[in-house]
Protein: Transport system permease protein
Organism: Paracoccus denitrificans
Amino acid sequence: MTPQGPIPHPPLLRQAPAGRHYALGIAVLAVLALASLAIGSRAVPPGQVLAAMFDFDPGNDLHLIVRELRLPRTLLAVFAGAALGLAGAVMQAVTRNPLAEPGLLGVNSGAAIAVVLGASALGLTQMAQYVWFGFLGAGLAGVAVFLLGRAHESGTDPVRLVLAGAGISVLLGAAASLVILNSALEVLDLFRNWGAGALEGRGRAVALTMGVTLVLGGGAGPGAGAGAERHGAGT
């Protein structure tokens, strides 16, 4: 029997360079950001939007709308989207699951219960106040899940992390619901806006806080993901 040569494979589709994808994404983001500055209860022509950005006139009402109201909200939306993407990438590296997201490891639930407690017990109503409780709660929940995932093990098992995250999420979610049911209606409204990601009334201070946090997280995120890989199940 004559040995056969290697079976030829069909030619692979040529993939576009990654840089082209990035450029397309940035272009789409720029168009959407411009639209968010121009579209609203009062439409602003694109020319006035650009003038407000590069030739600001304090006496022009349209310029004030763009610079003082819509620009902070637009920046905050961009920062929030980037932060979610970064968090998802870190979670995927930690759990080795391409579908992982912050809620999988109890981070969302930790932030929620901390915000609810801050609003209910301390009467915090401003985003610039209770956002720090959100950061603290998210961090503590993440640490708790990580410790549970390493319990009685020399390394971190992605499956144990997911199971620990699911348990922590259910526990903290139930606790947040209990606090809300026994609090004033204002706490429910605040939590509803928090959970929905409402941008209404968010000013420069909130956008600045989010931007600084994103920069810090962007620097620490890749290192955290790499560290989790080194200390994972394969070590």
Summary: The helical segments are 18-38, 46-54, 61-95, 107-122, 127-149, 158-181, 185-196, 204-230. Residues 61-95 form the longest helix (35 residues). The mean pLDDT is 82.
